[in-house]
Design a protein that fits this description.
homodimer, about 400 residues, alpha/beta, Arc Repressor Mutant, subunit A, Nucleotidyltransferase, domain 5, 3 domains, five-stranded mixed sheet, 15 helices, 16 strands, about 40% helix, about 20% strand
Chain lengths: ~400, ~400
């Protein structure tokens, strides 16, 4: 039996007021946000049921609902009320779906996508603008032109802001693209120029985090994604976003989620190069995926890569044990053979007995990457409705 | 310019009360815990300064302090009061350091450690009991015997509970060792037998998470560890714990933090086998580390392995971008050559310009792994002092 050495007591000196650390502000519990999120999830819905969902008194909900109505975020929908019963009729509330909008932007290597989304993250109208080795100024000008066009075409919608999603390392707080190796952008400010060019509140964020925020708000697996989720994006850049206890992790300068070890093995550039070696030219992976539906050689390229991705997914599942892991990759999202190969690789590694329920395709592969940008703005709205509408009001 | 297809509206039906999900209980903000943690961090400290730190009124702090005094968790230390000033003298509060204790247990492959710790996580007395391929019943009996001995030797201390730290996959909520490949334990209940054998409130948890909780409470980098931290444990089992926004992540059944991909490459079993091939027999890595101080061949074994660990650390830093990453591995903690090799490998991978401030040795390498067990109980105490002392009161 080995005796352990006892620990040393520390000197006992009283902490004085001057020794105290600086105070941190208390977190503001925003009941208005709780009500708005309940309308997002359950609208149209009566105020009495909102009170139950948000854990608030009827009087509070009535006040908060009045504020949201005044700001034009929700509306009353008498047509959705049920059959008349006893007492005063309940006029349900719903999101102001037709008079609000958010601009979602995604900057990809081969093109930029700009779309007007409704408050449920659905595309009202949008377009893709191809580009080659674009400068930040060109991208900003393109965004501003499309935003102006979309706002002119939809004057009935109050636009809450612009969310710009970009791959690589994006410092969300500073609004700067720190490093996008394929675009060759380093320390490129994007928030300030886009805000200046559009006159709208602008938020910039990594696309994987934007998509994860959209999954939490509107995705097929939103409930699980709000608890704990990992989002793996495989394209020209490869990155990971994750949320634990519902919060998307950023890290200082938003530097978390980099997976350099995976980039070389599975990036879209490599896939396009291997396709080119087979004589198939494609602008991006999405095109290649469509071609792969009728070309077994291309299908095999996707399948091979999916085994590598499967090994990475196994590592992420082991490490995070998330309730759901979303994969945004054209092969996995669209080609059943590829999806099966990835899941088979995962099963072979012995981690998950049945991964099909945990490892799922992105809810937005069919939509547009502009949803990633929309997730960035709309997440702000649902986290703090008063701040976003205040910013929108002052910047238009 | 490619036009995007607009999204489809969803049918608008009002959510009825019967459609609402089950209500979740609101989180209880425990002010008593805030006061106790402030005493842990800053004691001895006057009530007026506690009020500032915890963001509470003087009257609330006075009430809460009375409750903590009554439960015997804090004490008044008039001898720590400063020079007399105007008005009523402030009698500072401090932790009841001499009359409280927690039992910390660590179950390793070659031995079990049992120690009595004070509320600051320092060892009062403890011992290591060697074993070989032990059964859970043997381990439980050994723990109970030592707990009885320690309590008899220190009758002045109220023991709050037992924290048992084990490597591998431990389901903390169920108190079960789900899988410890080296011990060969699968689905072994440990919480219930130890609680029954000791008559004390018992908590079981993975050792990496126990050590991380101890780092957050008492470690050299506690302030950063409370924000975001990764803890890498390299021994006979290799596992990772991480905390984001201050909360240690568990995942369903506490299954997060497994790093099977790393286990084969760097586990202690492999190192001991390579040392044996050189004709050096050691019971565990700690012994090997002591021998390596005078044996260049062993030092080289540790150094080689540290390069592999460095690559894993780079992956973890990229993915989590933690404020601090603690490594519990004898070479890194004790042998400067090994530590330099790991940091050099990390620097070579280009992630962190200067990792020495981020990637640091465990605060407890010099103490004892029993601190991991202590971290498990004491974390409960500081998270909710009323519940732990209630449990302790009913089970003794």
């Amino acid at each position: 039996m080995v005796r352990l050495a006892p620990g040393q007591p520390r000197p006992s000196t009283t902490t004085r007021r001057a020794d105290l650390p600086a105070q941190r502000p208390a977190l503001r519990g925003d009941s208005s946000a709780a009500v708005l999120r309940a309308v997002l999830d359950h609208g149209p819905i009566a105020r009495s049921n909102l009170a139950r969902l948000a854990g608030l008194s009827a009087a509070s909900v009535s006040n908060l609902a009045a504020g949201l109505l005044e700001r034009g975020l929700v509306r009353e929908v008498p047509e959705a009320a049920g059959p008349p019963g006893f007492g005063r009729p309940h006029v349900p509330l719903d999101l102001e779906i037709d008079r609000l909008g958010a601009i979602g932007v995604h900057v990809a290597v081969s093109h930029v996508t700009v779309a007007l989304l409704d408050p449920r993250g659905r595309i009202v109208e949008g377009c893709e603008l191809p580009h080659e080795g674009p400068s930040p100024a060109q991208v900003t000008a393109g965004i501003a032109e499309q935003v102006a066009r979309l706002r002119a075409a939809h004057p009935e919608r109050q636009v809450l802001g612009v969310g710009v999603a970009v791959g690589g390392w994006v410092d969300a707080e500073a609004g700067v693209v720190v490093d996008h190796p394929v675009l060759g952008w380093h320390d490129v400010p994007l928030q300030a120029p886009v805000a200046a060019a559009t006159g709208l509140a602008t938020f910039v964020e990594g696309h994987s985090r934007g998509l994860l925020r959209a999954e939490q708000l509107f995705g097929r697996h939103a409930e699980r994604a709000r608890r704990s989720a990992v989002h793996l994006f495989v394209g020209n850049v490869v990155d990971v976003a994750f949320s634990l206890d519902g919060r998307v992790h950023e890290g200082p300068r938003s530097a978390s989620g980099r997976v350099g070890w995976l980039q070389d093995a599975v990036s879209g550039q490599g896939l396009l190069a291997r396709a080119a070696a087979l004589g198939v030219a494609a602008r991006h992976e999405g095109e290649l995926r469509v071609l792969a539906e009728d070309d077994d050689r291309l299908l095999e390229l996707f399948t091979e890569r999916s085994r590598e991705i499967g090994r990475a997914v196994a590592t992420l599942v082991d490490l995070f044990d998330p309730e759901v892991l979303m994969v945004f990759e054209p092969g996995f999202c669209w080609l059943p053979t590829v999806r099966e190969a990835l899941l088979a690789e995962l099963a072979g590694l012995g981690g998950l007995a049945d991964a099909t329920d945990v490892v799922v395709p992105s809810s937005f592969a069919a939509a547009s990457l502009a949803v990633a940008g929309g997730g960035i703005v709309l997440d702000r709205l649902y986290a703090d409705p008063t701040s976003v509408t205040r910013v929108a009001a002052t910047s238009t």
